[in-house]
Structures are given as structure tokens and as C-alpha cells.
Amino acid sequence: MQLSIYSILSNKKLQKLFPILFFLFEVTTVYCQLLTGTIEDTKGNSIVAATVLIKETGNGAVSDLNGVFRFNNIPVGQYQLTVSALGFIEKNIAVSINQNQQKLNVVLEDDIKVLDEVLILGKSSATIIREQAYAVEVVESKGFKNLSTNANDILGRVSGVNIRRSGGVGSDFTLSLNGLSGNQVRIFLDGVPMDYFGSSLSLNNFSANIIDRIEVYKGVVPIHISSDALGGAINVTTGGKSSSYLDASYSLGSFNTHLASINAQYRDQKSGFTTRFKSFLNYSDNNYKVPVKLINFDTGKEDQEPTLVERFHDAYQSKMGWAEIGFTGTRFADQLMAGVIYSDNHNEIQQPPNAIGQAKIPYGKVATEEEKIITNFAFNKKGIFSDKLSFNSYLVAVFSESLSRDTASVRYDWFGNPYPKIDNTTGEIEGRKTLLTLSSENVLANANAEYSINESTSITTNYSLNHLSLRGTDPFKAQNNTQFNQPNLVSKQ
User: Fold this and answer.
1) pLDDT tens column, 353-386
2) Residue 332 phi/psi, 5° resolution?
């Protein structure tokens, strides 16, 4: 069917619909308006991702890669546009929307903020150490705080440092630095040699919460670390904070492992009076399972295939408490502190320390114990005589008692069952029982003075003292009594 314009206009039904169609056409014309525009900077460059907001309607748009934005179906009227972009000053624009298409060109000015000056107060301690004329790496322990980790775990992340452990918590370890180990690499605690601190204060016991940073010197060692360390040195520093704090952590792990640490400091900001307390506790049963080819004590024969058995006598416990009192950050001293350390440990020995391969015979009563009391005094001051002279010193006295026990005349199998020996004068390890007690007194002192001539030249003098007295007793083994009955003295300067 075909309809002409005349037939439409003459049709009575369509004549009734015509006013309605005309009204809809007018509404569409009024309300379906288009608003577009471009956003540029003062140099004519397009601004991408600029935001355009119509305040009255709340509608928004974002400019594209060419700086173009677009709004559809905007009613006729007066509007306020807010144009903003990162790095530019926000701009408000009044826009009149009529029946014609609207196109805007918006220019935004750069938002420039000028600082009067930048003041650098100083360098961190770690940065100053790194800039020394030594091959040194500094590891700060901030990222390890309140984690169940120790100094060895932190050191293991340093290139050139390799740590090999022989077992679980408290086990012996070998540290090598660039391939050198043993006496060629020395370890220090706040500049004090740790050689005489014993196993209770070894690196695998020190919690990361106690440590401020670790300095690893590869090769040449600074003169203030007075030691015959030919292969390098590792200096573990504690403290370092100038504010009051309280820090505590506790970790529980497999094999009944408990690691705890409580550290606190109070410092009066006005007088510099400071008290500190540091502590840790490490314990583990170390009762993990190992594959062993069992031995039949009746026949003396060894099984062909290994059996998975549990270590039943390998528990370890160590603890330390360190209290200090004095002054820090004052006019007369950067640090003037005196303190006392108490530490001890108990180590059950399951196998010989130098055991290779699969274990044959376990120990069930062999153990070592150690107890130490250490007194320390430290005085440090920089900036004497117009910031030319620096002085560092410490005095440490170590009183130690250690015990090695092998007094059980029995043999154990890997299930913890004892088998008495015929000869009750022998122990588990050696042909003779031993209960060796060693008592030592060790005095360590160091004084270092450095005079700076200019930024690149200085004169340094250092004095170091190490005096050791050692004696021991053994009610079972005459050889030990003979060797340690009279005091063994070593003095080095």
C-alpha cells in the first residue's frame, strides 16, 4: 500500500496523531544536544585523561588521546563546567547550551610549585660506613624485625658469605667469607671480638630484633676493629636508636621450637640519660627424623636399608639478658654506657659434631653447658676540637664456666633404649668418662683516636689488649686435670 503526503494529511485518523508527532519531534530537538571540546596546555599539546564535570547534572567525561571529550543528550540551558588534570590548574567555565551543537577549546595552565630550598641534614650510619675506603657491605635489619630470624639468616643474604649448618636450632655452623673461614674471619659484637663470648652468644642465637645492622668487611679491616683477621671481619652492631621503645616477639615452630625476644630502651631527651635491656630465648627439641641403617647390638650387623627414626636427644636452649645504663647523645659523650650480660645454654649432643654420612650410634646422655657473666663499658665521642678528633673505647670483662659431660656407661639405639656397658669407667664417646669444667677470665680493651686533617686525610692510632686466664677440673679424666690444673695464661697487645 502506498500513501502520498496528500492522502496522509486528508486521513482523519492521521490528522489526530499529527500534533503528538510534532510534540515528540520538538522535545527531541530540545533535549538531544551535543557538547564536545578539546583540552590543551599553553603550548598547544593535547592533555590526555583530563576530567570534565558538569556541576548541575553531575555528569562527567574524560579526554581521549587527542584531548577530546564529548557529552550527549544535554538539555538546553546554562551550565558550569569544571576541567581538571594532574599537574595543571583547575579551571571553571560557564557554558550556554542552545539548539546548536556546542564545541569548546579549553586551555589549562601548568601547576608549578617552587620550593625555596632543600636542606640535607646528614647521612645515615650505614651510608657513612659504605663510603669508607674499604670493601664493606652493610645490611640493616629493619626488614627483619619481629621475624623468627637470627644474625646468620641475615648474613646469608650477603654476597660472598656462605653459612653451613650441621643441624637444627643451636647446631654448629661454619661461616666462610669469600672462600676463607675459621680464624681467618673474625666476628665482633659492637666492635668487641666474640671469640671469647662462647656458644651461648654465637651468631645463630642473636635475634634480629637486637641487631641494628651488620657490617661485612671483605679483605682489609679498619684499624678500630683491632684483630688479626686476614680474610675479613663481620661486625654486628646493636642499639643505635635515640628514642624510647619497647619491642617484643615470640615465635612457635615445628619440633617444639620457641624463639622469644624482649628489648626496651628509655631515654630522657633533655639529659640524655639512657637505660637499655635486651634479651632472647631460643629452645627446640630438634626431634626431626633422619634415615639410619640400624645396627643390631647382638650380632653387630648393619641393616641393608635405612629406617626413618626420630632424634631423641638433641634439645637445645640458650638465653641472654643484657642491661645497660648511662648517657647517649649528650654534649660530653655520644655514648657513655656500662652494663652487664648474663647468658647460658644447654646443648644435648645426639651425634659427634664431625659425623659424616648416616649416623650409626646415637648418644643419649652426652651434653655441654655454658654460663657467662660479661661486664662492659663503652665511651664514644665525635667532633672534639672543632670536629677534628673522634675517640672510641671499650672495656669488657668475661667470666665464663663451661661443662662437657660424658658420664654414662651405656649405649643407646635409635629408639632411645639404653644398653649398659660392661666397663663402667667408660663413657659414650671416649674410653674414659669425662666431666670437664673450664673456668676462664678474659679482659678485652680497646682505645681508638682519629684526627681528621681534611675530608680525605686523617691520622689514626689504636691500642688493643686481650688477656685470658683459663683453668679446669675433671674428676674422671686425669689428662684433663693435668692440662688445666694450673692456669693457662695468654696476653696479647
Assistant:
1) 665 555 678 899 999 999 999 999 999 998 888 8
2) -95, -10
Strand order in the sheet with 457-473: 245-253, 257-267, 273-284, 316-328, 335-348, 367-383, 389-406, 434-454, 457-473, 488-492
Supply the pLDDT for residue 44: 87
As a whole number of angstroms, the distance between CA 17 and CA 24 comes to 11
Dihedral (CA of 192, 193, 198, 202) sign: positive
391: which residues sit within 8 A by CB, 6+ positions away?
A: 379, 380, 381, 382, 384, 447, 448, 449, 450
H/E stretch holding 6 reads helix 5-10
Residue 278 forms beta bridges with which residues?
263, 322
- Residue 30: CB atoms within 10 A of its CB come to 13
CA distances from 447 to 333, 352, 398 (A): 15, 41, 18
The percent of the chain in helix, strand and coil, each rounded to the nearest 5, is 10, 50, 40
CA 262 vs. chain centroid, Å, equals: 16
pTM, full prediction: 0.69
E strands in 289-388: 289-292, 307-310, 316-328, 335-348, 367-383
Instruction: Give the lowest-confidence range in 137-151, 227-241, 385-399.
Output: 137-151
Q: Among candidates 345, 372, 339, which has minimal Cα distance to 442?
A: 372
Q: What is the pLDDT of residues 403-417, one digit of tens each?
A: 999 999 998 989 999
Give the C-alpha separation, 51 to 90, whole Å: 10
| Cα gap 326→337, rounded to integer Å | 4
Q: What is the pLDDT of residues 159-202, one digit of tens each?
A: 888 888 777 888 878 888 888 777 788 888 888 888 778 788 88
DSSP state of 256: T
Burial of 486 (0-12, 13-18, 19+ CB in 10 A): exposed
Share of the chain above pLDDT 70, in %: 85
Strand order of the β-sheet with 192-193 is 136-140, 211-217, 232-238, 185-189, 192-193
Which residues partner with 384 through β-bridges? 389
Q: How many CB atoms lie within 10 A of CB 346?
A: 18
b/e burial code for range 71-108 (CB count within 10 A of at least 16 → b): beebeeeebebebbbeebeebeeebebeeeebeeebeb
Question: Grid coordinates 665464663 are at which residue?
Answer: 400
Cα–Cα separations (whole angstroms), residue 334 to 232, 266, 274, 328, 437? 27, 16, 12, 5, 41
* Lowest mean per-residue pLDDT among 364-368, 397-401, 454-458: 454-458
Strand ranges across the sheet with 180-181: 161-165, 173-177, 180-181
